[in-house]
Amino acid sequence: MYRVFTCSGAGLSGMALGALLLLFCVSSASAQWVASGLGDTRVNRFCHASDGSILAASKTGIFRSTDDGESWVATDVTEPTHSIVVGPDGDLLILTDTRLATSNDDGATWTTLTPPDQIDFIWYVHIAPDGTFLAINTPVVYYSQDKGQTWANGNTGLPSVPDVNAIVSTADGGLLCGTGGVSGGGIFRSTNGASWTSVFWAGANSDAQALGASDGLLLAAVTGMGIARSLDDGANWYSVNIDATVASDFLIDGSTAYLISGKKVYRSTDNAANWQLWNEGLDDYSRDIFKTNNGTILLGTNNGVLRRPGGSVTDVADGGDLNMPTVQLYPNPARTQTTMNIDKAGAGRINVEFINEAGNVARRLQLAPSQAAANLSLDLEGLPAGAYFVKVRTADHAILQKLIVLP
Known about the structure:
Blueprint: E1 4-6, E2 13-15, E3 22-26, E4 43-48, E5 54-58, E6 61-65, E7 73-74, E8 81-86, E9 92-96, E10 100-103, E11 111-113, E12 122-127, E13 133-137, E14 140-144, E15 152-153, E16 163-169, E17 175-180, E18 185-190, E19 197-203, E20 208-214, E21 217-222, E22 226-230, E23 236-239, E24 249-253, E25 256-261, E26 264-268, E27 276-277, E28 286-291, E29 297-301, E30 326-330, E31 337-343, E32 350-355, E33 361-367, H1 369-373, E34 376-379, E35 386-393, E36 398-405
Antiparallel strand pairs: 1-2, 3-29, 4-5, 5-6, 6-7, 8-9, 9-10, 10-11, 12-13, 13-14, 14-15, 16-17, 17-18, 18-19, 20-21, 21-22, 22-23, 23-36, 24-25, 25-26, 26-27, 28-29, 30-31, 31-34, 32-33, 32-35, 35-36
């Protein structure tokens, strides 16, 4: 299983480890992927330095481009570099085979940091919107509020032994974390990486594999649900119209979104409601997708360096499928009873599951469309107090909403 990560808010996203990756780029106007540079090295991650140049973390070190990715120049970092990220004040943080290091001069010089764990165990680094440094060992999120001088365990609120698959910055200055493994998979929210609260629970032996976030749109790839989006800050999640069931990376640019799934790249121009294959000229695995300041899309694959400059796709203002069902639960929190209303449920029977915090289905219901449209009273007697995710499956969509059962 690959460990994937996404960094948004500055148009950054990518994947730390995996099979051989090489650099590609494409514009929205291009008919297909075209050749560019860095064809002989694996590129793991991109970011913008504060001077506007683009930095690429690769198997052979860090490269810099000052011409929108048309050409690349090697820097003084020549060791295999898995991850690079820029913080809100321009600090850079890198993870290489042998060290964590930071730079406050756009990568001209680097200061090696003492890692919070064995360097071989760390697979990804991130900088939160408030400047907090994060270093991820698969079951542990470490955080530092003094730019890597000291580190603390930030697993409070996560499952007991999480597989941390993804971390993304959100538009409101927070963080989302995607977990999986035997302890259960889900999406968790934090203000600074020190503690987390549950946003969405996928269940035991499930994975939230990849995340994307922008103002008003959250995306997730979740086993058992596929690709899902939320337009209300994670309160409700909806399956989307796409033939991909897994993803390794997302990039969100306004109402335009991009998704990598194996050898395929998809694009949506309606807030991720509907997706089209965007694969012309591409027939290899991709892991990293990134937008430059000039609107060029850079993509990492296994098959050389391709590039096509250009502007971003013209945004579509609407939110996508106007027939998307909505679920209301009230009161919420509730003690012995709550009322459910499902609007625009469509034809066919509707399955409802109450999933507890351990990821187990605590109760199942099957409803006729006439019941769903009515204000249906749900008896909560017998459900232990706690947080539940109510999963509603219609013929065309899956929706999740959180319900708190009071003691």
